[in-house]
């Protein structure tokens, strides 16, 4: 995967953002676009990949804590090389720290990219926010499940017939698809985290893979009128 922008600002729940970031950088560095099992993917999970600088503050950031970052970006990269700087809790950047970052965020040296994470937009200085491509993860508290969600949580081919009947019976408008995908995403993300906690790696692998399929589906939303086909394909790709 090629990384599009020089600086991102992602807003959402801490754990969710951490996993989203891991999966994003895995897709950048892994030769198989984020297989989760190769040496690179493992190094990323364990935060020891050479291409990533990951900052986690204990409290408000100090200028001293940002020093390693400026040290890192002082090295010129080869044209093919990439280095990702992840700043957790960007809402804890003081004004002085934020100011020290502005130039780097706006025009990072060749090959360097920033990902800023924060639980909320309050506390992020507008000068920082305006230099980043922003993405706010949907809040998990505000949703009731879409009626088709159960078909996408069982991973069972046996419900395919029923699903097809459901989508033939009543057209699913495109805006509902986005909503359904959000629900799927949360469901599989939770299964993934749960499996990681239990040390159930086959389940983590499966849930992670499904989550990736859904994430890719979200990037390619159906054209008006093609939601039926979209849902059938999505069902098949996560079930088979
Ligand atoms: Zn990999």
What this model shows, in words?
- 49% of the residues lie in helices and 10% in strands.
- It folds into two domains: 130 residues, 3-Layer(aba) Sandwich (Rossmann fold), CATH 3.40.50; 91 residues.
- The longest helix has 25 residues.
- About 2% of the residues have low confidence.
- It is α/β, with parallel strands linked by helices and 240 residues long.
- Zinc ion (ZN) binds next to helix 2.
Question: Which key features would you list for this structure?
Answer:
240 residues; alpha/beta; Rossmann fold; 5-stranded parallel sheet; 9 helices; 49% helix; binds zinc ion
Give the overall shape, derived from the CA principal axes: elongated
Q: Provide the residue-averaged pLDDT.
A: 89
The main β sheet shows up as:
5 strands, parallel
Please give the domain count: 2
Our Rg estimate from Cα atoms comes to 20 Å
Cα end-to-end separation: 24 Å
How many beta-strand runs?
5
Small molecules bound in the structure, each named once: zinc ion
| Helical/strand content category | alpha/beta
Our count of helices gives 9
CATH-defined topology of the largest domain:
Rossmann fold
Strand content: 5-15%
Helix content: 40-55%
Reading off the top of the CATH hierarchy, the class of the largest domain is best stated as Alpha Beta
Widest sheet, order of strands: 2-3-4-1-5
CATH architecture of the largest domain: 3-Layer(aba) Sandwich
